[in-house]
Write a structure and sequence with these properties.
CATH class of the domain at 1-160: Mainly Beta
Keywords: Metal-binding, Protein transport, Transport, Zinc, Zinc-finger
Number of strands: 26
Radius of gyration: 60 Å
Strand order of the largest sheet: 3-4-5-6
CHCR repeats: 462-606
GO molecular function, one term: zinc ion binding
Subcellular location: Cytoplasmic vesicle, Clathrin-coated vesicle; Late endosome
Distance between the termini: 139 Å
Structural class: alpha+beta
Domain RING-type: 685-733
CATH architecture of the domain at 1-160: 7 Propeller
Amino acid sequence: QVQVFGLYSAEEFHETFDCPIKIVAVHPQFVRSHFKQFVTGGKKLLLYERGWMNRWKPSVLHEGEGNIRNVKWRGHLIAWANNMGVKILDMISKQRITNVPRDDISLRPDMYPCSLCWKDNLTLIIGWGNSVKICSVKERHASEMRDLPNRYVEIVFQFDTEFYISGLAPICDQLVILSYVKEISDQTAVECCARPRLDIVQPLPESCEEISSDALTVRGFQENECRDYHLEYSEGEALFYIISPRDVVVAKERDQDDHIDWLLEKKKYEEALMAAEISQKTIKKHKILDIGLAYINHLVEKGEYDLAARKCQKILGKNTELWEFEVYKFKEIGQLKAISPYLPRRDPVLKPLIYEMVLHEFLESDYEGFATLIKEWPGDLYNNTIIVQAVVDHLKKDPQNRTLLRTLAELYTYDQRYGRALEIYLTLRHKDVFQLIHKHNLFSSIRDKIVLLMDFDSEKAVDMLLDNEDKISIDRVVEELENRPELQHVYLHKLFKRDHHKGQRYHEKQISLYAEYDRPNLLPFLRDSTHCPLEKALEICQQRNFVEETVYLLSRMGNSRSALKMIMEELQDVDKAIEFAKEQDDGELWEDLILYSIDKPPFITGLLNNIGTHVDPILLIHRIKEGMEIPNLRDSLVKILQDYNLQILLREGCKKILVADSLSLLKKMHRTQMKGVLVDEENICESCLSPILPSDASKSFNVVVFHCRHMFHKECLPVSNTVSPVQFCNICSAKHRGPGSAILEMKK
């Protein structure tokens, strides 16, 4: 009997035949009315086709080679296996295109039947005994046809397996093989049937690579033979069915859930977590959070507390309840310090109690760690008052602990008690004191602490005070520094550098401060200041014997002779004296310098070398006494002559340049005056003020145009009283601008 039922249609077929049916295969598109065909196998391979009046018409496709025990139909190709081998029939040409003989003829074909399956429309997989062949159906070239079928089969892979094949199926580019296994019993030393195996192998040209292997436990496997097992597969669902006399086993590809189960079983939690994150849309059994929590517990059990705490950030995310639960768990095992760096500080924020608990833990055992947390954590995470009180209690035991004092100042800052914070910072001489003052505008609190700030960092303190004069006046700062003149000088010096006039009332005081603490800057101060009393400055400089400063003050007060005398007598520096005389540019001063130097040969040498461009050297040379020995006199005289020659050359060069420029400009003026002048209807006669051109252009007219661009009708020009034929513009002559150049006369 052959019965066909449509699972998703009303198709139903039932027929009784007069011969035993070993195997049946329906047309792949049997559901369509034009393809109502199926083949049966027994002693013959019969094709049944529905014909006229819905009657089935049989036709013999093959016979005479024993029972046909397996048939597979794919597309237009039918493959079947009998006692001799495997044949393939092309249903289009109705030609048999190949015969693949079986390898091991010693095996009974009824006990070790052939397994067939189509991988695709052109690839047939054959398993028989322990041999696997993968055959590819190909088109024959037209030149090779002759009387041969238009298709042929090529064996592309062939290999042997360890056990006998009961079934096979394709999976991607690999094979699933169901194997019948025999083994020697350890107890009786007799060969017996073992559990069947389901292997996945990767075919190679002459061998195969085993990918996985599973032994299947089915009921009664000890009594089964190779022919009792079958492997079928559902191509669309990727399901494989292992059929035995008493069981049907369904196999399917392992998914990510199976993979994660295996990883968790092997305690590979990190890999399991990564796999779950990658496949979070496809996994069904597992949740990322559950795997993560299991991973954290595993790390805690191993004692890897820091790693466990670090993983909390990623795994717990924004779940505050889980965060708090984990924090309490870390507290129970005494590892609050491990989780503290990873606690969330923004989105989410935990209960204040959690953060306070961690801070108390650090305060009891690690002051530096406590200070770090206070600096890193925002002040609104915990109750500031409670933490301040705890720190104050600890300071009672150790009042000089700088770490606790610095932390207390930060807590006061969070609590906006800036005055107390400032006192602690100043006591500690902490670098953040200036930042605190600026940030919170604490200038009113530092009016009486200016000396402390200056002692701590005078540069920063002075800059801050000068930048905020509107909040702390200059007078207040000077008053506060009255007993510390060295600091007072630093402040006033910086003030003077910024603005020469702001602290003018203190310039007299600054003379003494510069003289006492900063002599190098005294002379620049005297030069730049217009408010310091010169008499007072001169008195101080003379008392301290500051020669350079005294010279400057004498010259500024108009006593240049005394200044020059001091340079010559005190400094004995002829170069400086000459420089001073050059600056003053006073003939009498040069005379004094020559008189003072005339009996000092080194001074005479210096004057001869430098005087040439300011005073006639002859004046000095005539006064040199005969017989006086002057060092380097020859060189000095040569230099005077060279300087004189240089001056002559410069004058001649300048003269040539002036002459050339004058000539060039004269030529340019001549070219300009030789150019024509535009005369149109808009121009008027400067005498009669009527248009210079007549309205009737046909009439004759005379016009006189001067180079100064003034225009006249010829009859409007006054008659010249001079005999000279050259006329001048009356307007320009009246304004004393000089005569116009030669005139242009237009006639028509």
